[in-house]
Structure formats: structure tokens, C-alpha cells
Description:
Layout: H1 13-112, H2 117-122, E1 124-133, E2 139-148, E3 156-168, E4 171-176, H3 177-180, E5 188-192, E6 195-203, E7 209-220, E8 227-232, H4 233-236
Antiparallel strand pairs: 1-2, 2-6, 3-4, 3-5, 3-7, 7-8
Amino acid sequence: MSSRLVIKSHSLWPRRAKLALMLLALGLGSWGVFLLGQQAAGLDNDSLRIERDRLRALLAETEAGNRRLSSRVVVLERAEQIDRQAYGEVERSLKQVQDEMLELREEVAFYRGIVSPAETASGLSVTRFSLFGMGGEGVYRFKLVLTQLRTNNRLVKGHARIAIEGVLHGKQTRLSLKEVSGGTLGRLKLRFKYFQNIEGDIVLPEGFLPSRVIIEVVPVGKGWKPFKKSFDWSDIVA
């Protein structure tokens, strides 16, 4: 029996097609993975940008708050400094007033011990009368201090008059306060319990030679008596 060699031909196309499909599927899968990665990366970047913007806004708000707080601290520190200065000034002023009151009380006590009989009877005292030159010829500023001598410290009401005696053009002359103040001063109103200071300006006529000042005190009301007191000019001019 003779043997035969049988040769069969097989087509390579199906295998090649299958391989091509596999490669295509692999390529599409890789591309899909790449696209998914890109999308995920994009989402992550968006989240990071949002978080970054939020943190920047928070930082800006915090810095603005710090600036406001710093400004407030400066204002409060300045206010505290002003309060301390004001308190110090008030304290110094109060001490000065207390010292002045003590000095005046001591003066009142002193003058009460050296008053004239007329003043004692009146219950009032002209404790001081002074004249201060104001720079011009015959121009002066006077200061009159009256004190109550009685310890019950009743309210004193009334008025006082001032006259200046001297020589004018060789004649004895008496000038009223109204004449030497240009008509601005006349009778000086009195109203006090303890003491009263009265000040004013006078201008003497040209050529007038003053010798003394006479003060007349006229209180009103029961128990008060008017009186007069004179001062030599040389004793009262500062």
C-alpha cells in the first residue's frame, strides 16, 4: 500500500485579524485609562484651586482683622494716655485750689485779728486794697478784698465806693471811681458770705498827684453797719 503525502494549506487571516482586534482593544483601553487619569487630575487641580482661593480669602480676612485690632489698640492706648494726663492736670488743679483756699483762710484769720473798731462794729473788713501800675502814665489796676468778720457767715449784700484824694493844678481834689474809670465803674456791688475780690482799671488825670484812697462800705440788712477806711497812696502802690 503506497502512502500519500497530503499537504493542507491554512489561511493566516483569521489570526491576524484576531491579533489586530486585540491590539486595537488594548490601545483603546490605554487611551481610556489616559483620559480617566487626565480627568481625575483635572478634578484634583480644581479642588486645589478652590481650597487655595478659600485659604487666600481667609488669610486676607485675618490680616484685615489684625489691622483693625492693631488700630483699636493704638486708639485705646492713646485714650488711656489722655486720661492719665487729664487726671494729673485735675489733681494738680485741685491741689492748687486747696492751697489757695488754705492761704485765703489764713489771711482771713489774720486780718480778723487786726481790724479797726469801725470794721468790728460793722462785721465787715476791707482786708486789702492794692494798686498795680499798668505801664502807662497814671494807669493802674486796683484789687479790693472784703471779708466778713462774723462766724455765722451770713450773706452780705450792699455796695462799696472808692474815692481818690490828691492835688490837681494846685488844688485839693477828690475824684470818684466813676471819674477815673471813664464812667465804666461806680458803686461796686457786694454779695458774699466769706470774702469778695473786686478788680478794675483806673486812669488818673494828667498832672494829678494822689495822696490817699478812701473806701466806703455800705452793707444793707439788719445787723450791718456802714464804715470807711483810708489808705495812703504810697502804701498801696505796688
